[in-house]
Amino acid sequence: MTEYGLQGNDIKFDNSVLNLPGNIFTELCECLDNNPIDTNWRALVALTDKHYRIRPYEREKWSNALDEGSSPSSKLLTELSNQGMTIGELVDYLAKLRLEKILVHLKNYEPIVIQKQPCSDLELQEGGNLILEVVATGFPYPRYQWFWCADGQEDFVKLAVMTENILQINSIRRDQAGAYCCQIHNCADPDQCKLTSYSMVCVKPCQEPPPCNFGLRVTEGMDVTAFKAVNDEQARPIITRHPENKSAVLRENMTLHCDAIGPDDNMQYNWYKDDKLIATTPVLLIDNVTEENFGNYWCIVRNKYGDTRSKIAKIVPRPDPYVIKADVNDIIIISNPKSCTVVFGGSVMFHCVAQCSQPLGYQWYRNGRPVEGATSPKFCLEHIQDISMDGAYVCAVYLRDNPKIQQLSMVADLKIKVPDVRDNIEYNPSDKVALLIGNSDYKSEQPLHAPKSDVQVFASTFRSLDFKVVSLLNLTKPEIEAAVNEFCNLIGKNIYAVFYFCGHGFDEDGRSYLVPTDAPAGYVTDDCVCVNSVLNKIENCDPALIFMILDICRKQNKITTNKPRELRPRFEYGRGGVKGKTVICYATSEGMQAFEDPSNGLLVKYLHPLLRHNKGIEAVISEFKEEFGQYIMMHNQHPIQIPELRSNLQEPRRSLADKIFTAGQTQAYNERHMRWQLAHIKPKKRIHEIPQWRVKIELDFQSDFSNVLHVFARVLDKGVTEKCIAFILNIPPTVSTKEPSKYVQTKPGDPVTTKITILDLQKLRDQLFVSVGIRFVMPGEAVDRIHISEQLVDLELPLIARLQLMNPCRENRVPIQNDDKN
């Protein structure tokens, strides 16, 4: 397999596809979603079919993902990862698709190597066809530019449109004789350019140039059978008018002409586009030009003596009928804008990336008319509210010092889908994040049963709504505060932020307080976390929506604060409360308790199914209160728990199910994803060996919460032992476990697997080291032996421990910028 990896990029190519850096993964999905059919996600499926099986029904299900606002490519890459594809294998497949835009992040620069030189000497007759070919390799992929000189010694002239590896000149003239060579480059460094050897082309005059009457002197009354004396070569059709290169605006009509003469009028015209027969008339009429009509055209004229091929005519997009044709030789467009379909109310961003040795300017056009103010490589249409914004978009890239010299991008066709009336088209957050905290193991309070399962239920719900979820169990006061501070690093403008707390709590002076696990006996407000302090921090980040779910009791605390009333802070939504973006759902009303059944809290039981509904958040909470009230009535219970909603939301139709749109926020989205992902990196599966007994043990890892790690150990090779069982021990005191390793149910005949759960990972300040132990019987012995490996296993800093929340020396993170800067 080829060696990959750009300098400074620590991508590990034997890792899973899903370990691609977030920005590369996102760009790859966009590329595969929007590319033409020969380089899109379906083409990748076809390439990988021999080694990775994708069921046909899955492909068809994924094909509807774009219309639903998701990515079929993301689903494909996830499935390929599940089947074991590595990044290195993916790179090999992308190279076959020649997806240079993505490969530039994943491959080293490869200098130009010329594999095949053009012919050194050619002798042609005037009117013949000249074909020169050069083959070269390198990465980025080679670009070609042909040059010509009359005698091979003077300055060479750049041939304007000859930028392919094959140079073809039909019906060559004598004044086109001379020396030809090709310059090949793949980067801006002139030292990396390569020149081919010269091809000396000699063009000889025709011995008997055929006039219109094909060299015969036709006299009146001459028998037409005299034409039979003309040889077949001379009697083939002669094209007197070749089709010409043209540019067109989308949806206009255009024609291409090809005229020919011959010994009789019985001639057949066959028009071709990109090697496909498309018409059989002398005039090719194209009605209502679309993007598919752009390309290379030629005509082959046939009679009974043979056929003649016309010159190639190119049809290219034109932004405006009045734009002056320009010399585009020095401008290379690397990335063209892509056609796409967006939902009404959604956003779209077109990109055009070009290279040149001189400063460039940009102007975007829509249906041939310049778009005012659209003068950068990126062109964004946000929250589209006018269906007439659809159409053909193209970017003209020009030299700032000479605007007449320009190059046009490919046309991107924008289609606007009018959604079903049930869809919420008004709001599209650029991201959604959720912090879920469940406290159950208290030092000085009665332990709770529901927080762990409640957090799991809500985590699953919010993940299904595309939230980035951080779920934590059993936090102290400093840990809650540190978690909130780190959570705020994920929040910014146009972000939906959810904060959930399940545990003990109380109210005092109109404020609610969250009780941490380390609260002392007789705790007061200073020992707890004020809800308003959490809200203030989140509001200061200016998200589009704040949704707080507080599953706590709200009775007065057993011990009131000793502070004078005038020094106690008054109730407020937070410093940013006037912005009207906050909704708080309390499990119970002020002065009342909140209850749990053996498995879940009552709030979670009735609220979580409703959160997936595509309804405004206030409507969801109102529906929850109605269902909860019906539960109280059905069970003939006194209303000892009445949920309460507090809201100053000025946009009540905002829904947790609103679709994420990252256009204009791609860089910030990728940074946020990478920062969130940093707190969810598990140790890699590994093999641990105990040489003394030749035992090989597999360690695997899972996590349900961001600060809880499950470690599984099983014996792959029992070596010289019998009845060998592996387990984990010597857990450092910084973290904790509720119970020692226990057996995990496996299939009959499989090795015994043990599992241990490591809690409180947020407390780690150093790498996590554990020991692997084995219990076994030696052949011929009846007594078990226990051997503890002296080699420690380094699990590094797993999950939330990597953020070092409780390390006073940890790096202060820079808030994510909300807008892409380039």
UniProtKB/TrEMBL annotation:
GO terms for biological process: proteolysis. One of its GO terms (molecular function) is cysteine-type endopeptidase activity. Residues 111-199, 237-317, 321-406 form the Ig-like domain. Gene3D superfamilies: 2.60.40.3360, 3.40.50.1460, Death Domain, Fas, Immunoglobulins. Residues 430-508 form the Caspase family p20 domain. PROSITE patterns: CASPASE_P20, IG_LIKE. This is Mucosa-associated lymphoid tissue lymphoma translocation protein 1. It comes from Potamilus streckersoni.
